[in-house]
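Customer escalation, tier 2.

The customer says the design service returned an amino acid string that "doesn't look like it belongs to this structure." They asked us to rerun it and document both sides in this ticket. The original structure tokens are below, unchanged.
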């Protein structure tokens, strides 16, 4: 596995996981393949489903990726770093999920807005919709401020039902991949009580010195998304080099 997820001591706010990179070469290869749209191959490798061959890659798309990664203008660096962190977050989620889970592919637009990821998890026992994971990924030097001022309001909006149509639309695509029979797809979607199956996953990339002192980073999570602690997940990637921007 390119990333190790270590569950931290539980607290009243959320389930917390700390990420660490185990294999730099494998990690970089997975991120690069995701950036080139090879998410199915990466998922195949992570889940150890046997030999898999990535699709052919054109020189022009590699050159375009290099161009994007070299952008350092105002706003561009933040978007680039946020996008790369989304790819890392996707890998971490793929490691956690089982084969009954169906994930949105990572965004291919560095500046794309909205919640960053969606995962449909079906029950192993009865093939019903177990839960939906909604992910927010943030690369920032101000993690507490971003969580309080950006993430919590976004979660409250989702909990209010304002974004249910967007969630339903994206979930329908994933259920369609999971089930080939139209009857099965409709039964799963019609049986879903959207608010009762939502779980949230907030992921931060930041420096250790940027973590808040004397206050829990994920404080307020339970107020925004009440219920059992499984509904609230907080994940951290601590980096030694500077993380730019607070928008993503």
């Amino acid at each position: 596995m390119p990333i190790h997820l270590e569950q931290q001591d539980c607290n009243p706010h959320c389930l917390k996981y700390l990420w660490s990179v185990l294999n730099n070469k494998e990690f970089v290869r997975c991120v690069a393949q995701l950036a080139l749209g090879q998410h199915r191959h990466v998922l195949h490798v992570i889940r150890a489903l046997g030999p898999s061959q990535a699709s052919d890659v054109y020189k022009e798309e590699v050159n375009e990726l290099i161009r994007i990664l070299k952008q350092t203008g105002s706003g561009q660096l933040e978007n680039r770093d946020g996008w790369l962190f989304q790819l890392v977050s996707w890998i971490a989620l793929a490691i956690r999920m089982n084969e009954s889970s169906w994930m949105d592919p990572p965004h291919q637009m560095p500046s794309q807005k909205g919640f960053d990821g969606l995962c449909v998890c079906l029950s192993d026992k009865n093939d019903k919709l177990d839960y939906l994971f909604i992910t927010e990924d943030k690369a920032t030097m101000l993690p507490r401020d971003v969580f309080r001022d950006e993430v919590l309001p976004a979660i409250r909006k989702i909990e209010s039902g304002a974004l249910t149509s967007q969630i339903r639309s994206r979930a329908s695509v994933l259920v369609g991949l999971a089930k080939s029979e139209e009857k099965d797809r409709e039964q799963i979607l019609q049986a879903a009580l959207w608010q009762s199956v939502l779980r949230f996953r907030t992921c931060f990339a930041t420096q250790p010195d940027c973590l808040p002192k004397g206050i829990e980073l994920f404080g307020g999570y339970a107020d925004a998304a009440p219920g059992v602690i499984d509904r609230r997940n907080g994940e951290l990637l601590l980096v030694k080099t500077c993380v730019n921007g607070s928008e993503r």
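Tier 2 assessment: The sequence is consistent with the input. Residues 3-238 form one domain. The chain has one domain: 3-238. Sent an explanation to the customer and offered a walkthrough call.
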